[in-house]
Write a structure and sequence with these properties.
alpha/beta; 8-stranded parallel sheet; binds flavin mononucleotide; NADP; oxidoreductase; NADH:flavin oxidoreductase/NADH oxidase N-terminal domain-containing protein
């Protein structure tokens, strides 16, 4: 391996993110794996995350529910009970033992849910009362009243405090992919007539209230947010995504948060790349903190994004899922394991989870030294 930075590829150069000293720019994107039985994080997650941890590498944990109304998928983790906090601790410790920096993605699905996931079989909550399709999967949501919104803001605040108690270095507020915050941001969903609807400023109000509450609870230097202004997942399009992204980037500056993590416009749908004339550059320029990009990145265009100062960090989802030692493989330009979609979300604690092989390292080779 090269010893000086001059010989290093842009992705493998150090970066100072607030108080965190990162040794490289390759970030583990948040990846839902549905192996947290009964919403409780499991011991196998300690192995999974520690496999992907490097000294000075940033990992973002999978989407983690902020309350008992936040769930919409089987066996996704929570962080609203004492039991959840205790269960996260050894997982966070395992990452820290490797020198990794670990953020928890805090999440509420909103209407991407059904009665079966909700306490007492009640309706999921949202900005709207319009149901997602298909009806067999998603129940019609209850439109949050203006008065009910502070309670949900408070759930995020408490979840952020719990994450810090569990030992996480910070939180990433999940404002992307058609989930609750995005259901307020996007004009294709938000049909409200109160102070949380109608105008761009009003649509951004609830997500910004969440940011403010979390910042007040744990400090701006431990808060990031994920946004996908261009994406259409879960029927979440917007008529002017660039204006939305820019307005959010500028508003976030007022809170001085650590990072903004944006999904590339080419990722309109999960896991599919589209040609697009759009770019995140205006948002990158507007936002004053660390800018993380994600979506369809390879080693080559990740290097280019860093070299061109298009982003500070690049997050990798599927490649990191399948390559626990992805930063090392990028550094060495080694071949990558292919990912297997079939096992992304199966509940097995091993298969498709902790069994992706590491590159044969030089120490493995030296087990069979040449005899002199
Ligand atoms: C199995 C899987 C689970 C995902 N779970 C989450 C999640 O919990 N939170 C989130 O914000 N994005 C999630 N995503 C999106 C990824 O973080 C990432 O943005 C996406 O995979 C595009 O990056 P990639 O092309 O490097 O995979 C998930 C993607 C996959 C494939």
């Amino acid at each position: 391996m090269s010893s000086s930075n001059e010989n290093k590829i842009p992705l493998i150069t150090p970066y100072k993110m607030g108080n965190f000293h990162l040794s490289h720019r390759v970030v583990l994107a948040p990846l839902t794996r549905q192996r947290s039985y009964g919403n409780v994080p499991q011991p196998h997650a300690a192995l999974y995350y520690s496999q992907r941890a490097t000294k000075g590498g940033l990992l973002i944990a999978e989407a983690t529910g902020v309350s008992d109304t936040a769930q919409g998928y089987t066996d996704t983790p929570g962080i609203w009970t004492k039991e959840h906090v205790e269960a996260w601790k050894p997982i966070v410790d395992a990452v820290h033992a490797k020198g990794g920096i670990f953020f928890c993605q805090i999440w509420h699905v909103g209407r991407v849910s059904n009665y079966g996931f909700q306490p007492n079989g009640q309706a999921p909550i949202s900005s709207t009362d319009k149901a997602l399709s298909p009806a067999e999967a998603f129940s019609p949501p209850h439109r949050l009243t203006t008065e009910e919104i502070p309670k949900i803001v408070n759930d995020f605040r408490i979840a952020s405090r719990n994450a810090i108690e569990a030992g996480f270095d910070g939180v990433e507020i999940h404002g992307a992919h058609g989930y609750l915050l995005d259901q307020f941001l996007k004009d294709r969903i938000n049909d409200r007539t109160d102070i949380y609807g109608r105008t761009l400023e009003n649509r951004c109000r609830f997500p910004l209230e969440v940011v403010e509450a979390v910042v007040n609870e744990i400090g701006a230097d431990r808060v990031g947010i994920r946004l996908s202004p261009f994406a259409n997942y879960m029927e979440s399009g917007d008529s002017n995504p660039e204006a939305l992204g820019l307005y959010m980037a500028e508003s976030l500056n007022k809170y001085g948060i650590l990072y903004c993590h944006m999904i590339e416009p080419r990722m309109k749908l999960l896991g599919e790349k589209f040609e697009t004339p759009h770019s995140l550059l205006p948002m990158r320029k507007a936002f004053k903190g660390t800018f993380i990009v994600v979506g369809g990145y390879t080693r080559e265009d990740g290097n280019k994004a860093i070299a061109d100062d298009y982003a500070d960090l690049v997050a990798y989802g599927r490649w990191f899922l399948a390559n626990p030692d992805l930063p090392k493989r990028f550094e060495l330009d080694a071949p990558l394991n292919k990912y297997n979609r079939e096992t992304f979300y199966v509940s097995d604690p091993v298969v498709g989870y902790v069994d992706y092989p590491f590159l044969e390292s030089s120490t493995a080779v030296s087990k069979y030294p040449i005899r002199m």
